[in-house]
Amino acid sequence: MTFLKTPLILAVSGALVLTACTDPNQIGANSSNPKAQRGALIGAGAGALAGALSRGDGNRGDGALVGAVIGGAIGAGIGYNLDQQEAELRRELDNDVTITNTGDRLILNLPQSIVFATDSFAVRPDLQDDLYSVAASLNKYPQSTVQVIGHTDSDGEAGYNQQLSERRATAVANVLLTAGVPSARLQTFGRGESQPIASNLNAAGKAQNRRVEIVILPTT
Fold it and tell me: What CA–CA distance (Å, rounded) separates 48 from 46?
């Protein structure tokens, strides 16, 4: 049995412990850019592991240390860009569009009520400006892939809801395409009623579940 060298154990386990165990609420408590710090931790952990695996047995510790440094720098850059993009989108978009920054992606939640009429998959004309603002942001920050995901509540037949969610995701993606976002960056998914974020037992919960999400995933 081959045992890992001490430098590799320290480098990989240290970076991964920082990544996995640090309380997200405590990261950057005194920093103006906590998402960049979180991105750096994520990148350091991934970089350490990748660096270790890319080296031979005798050099894995060095590879892990180098990978952690490079991965941390890349992760910090991703976090910083996401912070900048998030701030710009918040200024540009309607307040009904919620934005979640997880440190490694942005999730834009567009409620059905501002995007589509009931049972329709035609994007409402008054939302076009918001989607064009999203497209402008995507074009300004081109190092990302974009997932457009449609969701419904549980009313009606599940197969119909699945098709409706797919059509709505495609409709939103088509607006982004028209606004100049390359098709190679866009992926569309319909989740139907399978991924609720609230109860389907009351009207308020159903309204939350009827939505389209635009997920911005940075690439390196």
Answer: 6
Between strands 106-111 and 211-218, the pairing is antiparallel
Nearest to 216 by CA among 140, 108, 79: 108
In degrees, rounded to 5, the angle at the alpha carbon of residue 22 between the alpha carbons of residues 18 and 24 is: 130
Residue 185: closest CA among 150, 144, 218: 144
- φ, ψ of residue 13 in degrees (nearest 5): -65, -35
Q: Which two tokens stand for residue 125?
A: 């004309």
Written as six digits, the tokens of 7 are 């430098």
Q: What pLDDT, on the 0 to 100 scale, is given for residue 78? A: 83
Task: Tell how far CA 203 is from the center of its chain.
Answer: 28
pTM of the model: 0.69
Q: What is the CA 197 to chain-centroid distance, rounded?
A: 16
30 residue type, one letter = N
DSSP 190: E
CB 19 within 8 A of CB 56: no
Model confidence over 139-157: pLDDT tens digits?
999 999 999 999 999 999 9
Q: Which two tokens stand for residue 167?
A: 């059509």
**Sequence-separated (6 or more) residues with CB below 8 Å from residue 157:** none
b/e 61-71 (16+ beta carbons within 10 angstroms → b):
bbbbbbbbbbb
**How far is 131 from 168, CA to CA, in rounded Å?**
13
